[in-house]
Amino acid sequence: MSIKIEQHVYDVLILGAGGAGLNAAQVASQYAKTAVISEVYPTRSHTISAQGGISAALGNYEEDHWHWHMYDTVKGGDYLGDQDACEYITKNAPQMIIELEHIGMPFNRTPQGKIAQRPFGGHTSNYGKQPVKRACYVADRTGHALLQTLFEKSVSQGTQFFSEFYALEIVVNPDGEVCGVFCLDIKNGSLHLFHTKSLVLATGGNCRIFATTSNAHINTGDGVAMAMRAGFSWSDPEFFQFHPTGIYGHGNLITEAVRGEGGYLINGEGTRFMETYAPTIKDLAPRDIVSRCIGKEIVEGRGVGPNKDYVLLRIDHIGADEIMEKLPGIHELALIFSGVDCTKEPIPVVPTAHYQNGGIPTNYCGDVIKGSNGKYDVVPGLYAVGECAASVHGANRLGTNSLLDLVVFGRTAGERAAKYAQTSALAKLPDEAGKAGLEKLNRYANANGNVRFNDIYQKLIDTMQLNMSVFRTEELMKKALTDVERFEEMLKDYKVDDRSTVYNLDLIEALELDNMILVAKTATVAALARKESRGGHFRDDYPDRDDKEYLKHSEASLAPDGSISVDYRPVRLKPLTVDTFPPKARVY
Amino acid sequence: METVELKIFRYDPDKDEKPYFKSYEVEIRRPGMLLLAALNQIKWEIDPTLSFRRSCREGVCGSDGLNVNGVNLLSCLTKISCLNSKRIVIQPLPGMPVIKDLVVDLEDFFAKFITVKPYLIRRSSTPDKEFIQTPEQRKHLDGLYECILCGCCSSSCPSYWYDKQYLGPNALLRAYRYLADSRDEGALERLPILNDRHGVWRCHTIYNCVKACPKELNPTKAIVGIRKMLLN
User: Fold this and answer.
1) What is the ipTM of this complex?
2) Which of A81, A529, A571, B70 could cross-link with A77 by S-S, CB 3.0 to 4.6 Å?
3) Is A212 touching B (CB cutoff 8 A)?
4) Residue B13 and residue B51 in contact, taking contact as beta carbons nearer than 8 Å
5) Any residues with CB less than 8 A from the CB of B177 and at least 6 apart, and which?
6) Per-residue pLDDT at A3
7) B61, A43: Cβ pair inside 8 Å?
8) Each residue's pLDDT tens digit, B126-150
9) Cβ A98–B184 below 8 Å, yes or no?
10) Does A453 touch chain B (CB under 8 A)?
11) Nearest-5° angle of CA A368, CA A371, CA A372?
12) What's the order of all strands across the beta sheet hosting A552-558?
């Protein structure tokens, strides 16, 4: 039986419809025939959940400079961020915010009618002296407003959307040229091969591999897994961000803006413990630090509740009016998920897996780079932006820099992808285009073994939570790796019950689980190899940062036999125009 | 352990001649358990063939609009205990074609959203800095911009069911979000689209949309706002 595969040709193809993909799309669509492929309708991408803000040194309340923002970004990333990218993002931030405002983003306003700004974790004035109001915001629905504004803008620019298409394979021809993507239309089971001149990867994150996470169901790392299978590396996979304030028992996010607006954490003794750990900026220390402090309070018996396994986030003291004006979404979430009215009581919180700090390696313009032994070159026509990409955040991303990353690098990659398409011919599609993706699809569509999704998924998220989260050791991580390798074996005996060609969620979850296992395994292998503590990667057995050995990016690759190898690549310490911020002790 | 019965609309066009209902016994595993957790329990532990949409699981992505005991809502924000029912009947959003089980076809819904030109339209030049918009002007957008495009409103509207060309409360709410924006100059382009028997005049102020909106927005008020603009 021959299988029908519909072919499409585009100048620019964008995989993923979050903020990064949509900003790339609305820009590229102005110059080139552009399509976006997304597993969900664009407005349902996970950018929608971003709450607190998007940073730029606008200085609408007080003096601020992009160079201060750059310093905070470099220091916040524990010196693993590439400093050319840190300069690029912070310097371009103010112009990007203005651009978002001009296309309709409904920012909150100062009394003078300018864009309102609030303080956020790790953002300071004067190179660490005190917190600064840098985060521009739309109440606590900044991501929601941003995503919808960009969707609407790309609609007005004529972007074509392929919604509820699940990508199975990035097609690379024998000359190493990236030339397309092979997809399944979830709604009717039809197969599609997209042939393209430029490809922008904007596939988001993967924190669904943890039991306690702020992430949406779709955040399963499909993009990085596909990129690895296509021969690209994953930079710094061991660095996840654990956000300090996830709702206890659920993991849903309570934005850092709560602390930006004056909220603070208290332990079981009623003590405001961050004053001890970070005397200068207290509760507004970067996320990795606050998460470890919460962990320490709990481990040392100062948690709250019958099991002393959470802490409290207090915001009621700023008053109900202020809360309902600036944090209405938080009020709703706390009420539904913990039954707490935060205008009267504190919210029970624990650290929650929130963000992938690493990703597909890029230069400061969003071009994907590839290489080995420390030498990496640009892959023509391939771009990676947003959470699936790595350059700027290093070992720990600062709050609000994520939305900024989406729009700055999304715009740059969109422009570059369109320009590349205008000056290049379509690369030749190989005869076996789609073969690997189709093989994987068939394997799961017909899987008739004994192991179902939940038999693996529950165990996977539990072992990652227990052994690969805020505090790690050699022993714990080895346990995680052994477990994950066992789960990988179990995939061979997998069963998909649903045989429908139409909206087969059983099949989609199988394909996602396959990717999650590759993601978990890669992260754990790289974490074991990094014998130091830096940013989101903290090891009790190597509690200090070791710049002599490890001021370098991990680059994890997938070998044909399924094993993971880890290469290293130097951090780009030289910014574009200013002086390097040399690594120093990270105190706040 | 306490249990509850979920009676769910099932339909797989590949094998079913017509839709049917299937009942599942779900365990209440924590106080305040949410309906989405019950659907996941069925999917992951009882019947993997059930299809439904969900993503953020916190009421902002708008994926999981469903009709539950006759009312449109989001499963991720609905506590089972609040339904006050030992037998919960779950159906896809009404008035939209069913793709499979609880999954409906949203193409027409999104096409109507796009029809109203849901983006800022400018005729005059833009400043170098941000547009100045006072906090009072910005307040006009509250209650309008928070829409999550879940479809609960339009699919609860009898006019929307009856008139396949009716833009529906969702698209009209979004149209008003831009009409009410002090930065927008698109009224002359947008209003003629809305001034139509399939536009604002199809609304018969039944208020189902207001009741259905999980974000407590008021599309009817937006529709009345547009009518006022048309009459002026």
Assistant:
1) 0.98
2) A81
3) no
4) no
5) B118, B141, B144, B145, B147, B222
6) 83
7) yes
8) 999 999 999 999 999 999 999 999 9
9) no
10) yes
11) 145
12) A234-235, A552-558, A564-570
